[in-house]
Structure formats: structure tokens, C-alpha cells
Amino acid sequence: MAVRMSAPAAQAQETRQRIGATIVEARSVRKTYETGAVRVDALRGIDLALEQGEMVAIMGPSGCGKTTLLNCLSGLDSLDGGEVLIEGTPLSEMSDRERTDYRARRMGFVFQFYNLMPVLTAAENVELPLLLARASGDEARRRALDALGLVGLVDRANHVPDALSGGERQRVTIARSLVNDPAIVWADEPTGDLDSENAGEIVELMRRLNVERGLTFLIVTHDIAIGRKTDRIVRMVDGEIRGEEVLGMR
Ligand SMILES: Nc1ncnc2c1ncn2[C@@H]1O[C@H](COP(=O)(O)OP(=O)(O)OP(=O)(O)O)[C@@H](O)[C@H]1O
Ligand SMILES: [Mg+2]
């Protein structure tokens, strides 16, 4: 007799199949900022592994080190101790050039305040990472329109950011973050500037891209409603990981 799984069980199995090798691993990562006489131990020995196809939320009080962690994991910021491995390669073994190239090819970024170029249209903003990676103009435009299609914004392709709503702007930045077909997308408070309805739509969109395209997401958020939509919530306090909650998807 064929066994029929309940919808949540089927979804959990699908999630397990999606989740594969470790894509990012932090080992005893430390980061200290010194400004004049003030020393801040922003990261005090972080161990964390993200698996391919996972969607993870980092939560914790303001100043606990969430942005610092994201910047250290993505190689935007240097470490003061420990190691970060990306797809098995230690960041410390890459040159600045290799790290920059890796980011351009394999990573996408979404920030709270969009970071869109105000004089460029939505399509031009989305094309930018491809043009920086030396794609041809035609190819960049085609892929930008595909990415805008994935976020439901083809009909806004020629709008500049000022002529878009907040939720639409964030969908443009999500299109931009996935246009280079990255392995992982880093999102620092992607819904921090949005009302709860738009925030919910943005996280649903990220979840859909996670499930359908196997994109790995690390999302820093203050919003527990966003955290609950992910596979796992990692809680930070004062530069340390103080626990995690696996949300029944795995
Ligand atoms: N460039 C910097 N120079 C000096 N101190 C810094 C710098 N960046 C961050 N810090 C300090 O490091 C600590 C962690 O900052 P971080 O931005 O990672 O916090 P966060 O968890 O992202 O907070 P928020 O939720 O408010 O964004 C804070 O105490 C902050 O003041
Ligand atoms: Mg922050």
C-alpha cells in the first residue's frame, strides 16, 4: 500500500532533500573593534554552519553583532580570530581579488535601505552586478528581466526607485541579489523599513526562491514573524550564539 504523507511531512522531506553540503562554516570567529580608548568585542567566538538550501534567521538585540557576523561570513569584513570557510575554502586563503570575485559570482546581498542607484531604472539596477562581472549588455538585460519576472516586477522595469513603493524597491533588490545566480543570499534586516504586510510578502518571496531554486538565505531580522518562516532561528546575545530553534521543517 502506498503511504501518503501529510503536507507538512512531505514538505519536511522536500526540505531535507534540498539541504545538502555545508556552504558556509564559521569556526571560533572573533571580531574586535577599537575606536580610541573603546574596545568592543563584537564577535566572541562564533561557531556556525549553513547548509546548501537552508534558510536561517539570525535574531538578537541591537548591538549584539548580527551585522558584524554577516559581514565577516560574507568576507566583507576581516576577522580577528578563527576562520570562515566558504564551500570548503578558508576565506583567509583567498586574495582580496579572489574574495571580491567570489562575492560577485556566488553571493547576493539585500539590505534594509535597498541600496539602489536612484538615477537608474529597476532593470538597470538589477543589471549592475552582471555588467560588473563583464556580461554583455544584451545578456545582462535579458537576465535582469528574468529576475524581475521572478519577483513579479517586469511591468516596473523602467521605473526609477523613487517611482516604486517600498515593497517594490525591496523586490528589485532581491532581483538584483539573485541575478548572478548566487549560491547564497545575505539579507540584513530586509524588511526593517516595511510595514507588516509588505514584510510578509518579502519573506514569502524569499521562501519561494529558497524552495524553488534552492537558494541559501541568511536573514538578519528583529521580526519574529519573519524568523518563524525560516528553517532555523539562531539567537545571538553580546557577540555570542546563545541557542537556536529548529522550526520543524527539517
Ligand atoms: N565599524 C565599527 N567600529 C566600531 N564599533 C563598531 C563598528 N561596527 C559595529 N560596532 C560595534 O559592534 C557591536 C556590534 O554591532 P553590529 O552592527 O554588528 O550590531 P547589530 O546586532 O547588527 O545591531 P542592530 O540590530 O542595531 O543592527 C556594537 O556594539 C557596535 O557599536
Ligand atoms: Mg545590524
Distance between the termini: 26 Å
Radius of gyration: 18 Å
Sketch the major β-sheet: 6 strands, mixed
Strand-residue fraction?
Answer: 25-35%
- Class by alpha and beta content: alpha/beta
CATH-defined topology: Rossmann fold
CATH architecture: 3-Layer(aba) Sandwich
Describe it for me?
The protein is α/β, with parallel strands linked by helices. The protein has one domain (7-246): 3-Layer(aba) Sandwich (Rossmann fold). Helix content is 36%, strand content 28%. It contains 8 helices and 10 strands. It has helices at 7-18, 66-73, 96-106, 122-132, 137-150, 166-178, 196-213, 224-227; strands at 22-35, 38-51, 55-59, 81-86, 89-90, 107-111, 184-188, 216-220, 232-237, 240-246. The protein has a 6-stranded mixed beta sheet with strand order 6-7-8-3-9-10. A 4-stranded antiparallel beta sheet has the order 2-1-4-5, covered by helices on one side. Strand 7, helix 7 (196-213) and strand 8 (216-220) form a beta-alpha-beta unit. Helix 4 crosses helix 5, helix 5 (137-150) packs across helix 6 and helix 6 packs parallel to helix 7. The longest helix has 18 residues, at 196-213. The protein starts with 6 loop residues before the first helix and ends with a strand. The structure holds adenosine-5'-triphosphate and magnesium ion. The site of magnesium ion (MG) has 3 residues, from helix 2. Adenosine-5'-triphosphate binds next to strand 1, strand 2 and helix 2.
Task: Walk me through the topology.
Layout: H1 7-18, E1 22-35, E2 38-51, E3 55-59, H2 66-73, E4 81-86, E5 89-90, H3 96-106, E6 107-111, H4 122-132, H5 137-150, H6 166-178, E7 184-188, H7 196-213, E8 216-220, H8 224-227, E9 232-237, E10 240-246
Residues 66-67, 188 line the site of magnesium ion.
